[in-house]
Amino acid sequence: xxxxxxxxxxxxxxxxxxxxxxxxxxxxxxxxxxxxxxxxxxxxxxxxxxxxxxxxxxxxxxxxxxxxxxxxxxxxxxxxxxxxxxxxxxxxxxxxxxxxxxxxxxxxxxxxxxxxxxxxxxxxxxxxxxxxxxxxxxxxxxxxxxxxxxxx
Length: 152
Description:
This protein is mainly β. The protein is about 5% helix and about 35% strand. The protein has a single domain, classed as Umud Fragment, subunit A (Ribbon). Strand 2 and strand 3 form a beta hairpin. The protein is globular, with a radius of gyration of 15 Å.
């Protein structure tokens, strides 16, 4: 999930809120890896149930509208067009060039989501490679739920 998250960082995952409300676009989540692998992945929710996602020429469209991602500096490679059904989410890693995500394994089901990551608690000290303890919020890492003023 570079450049926003680094190897060796420890993240706190909150597991209760998704029992009360649905995941939102921009949430950084932990979920069970698809298939038989017994590992967890951390990715960002890009598209929600019943939305159409299209990736074309490095640009993401949600329901035919451009998606601006203020935290993302890389082009999103691949060509994808997918209509999500009930309880399906399309997730992408922030390090798009080297991420195994919904472009390769498809949409994930809500039941595979273990929780929402919301705090990087280790390392505590800041250095040139890490940014220390920080909240993961819509202000720093999220993307809007609406597309107003969201055009590149």
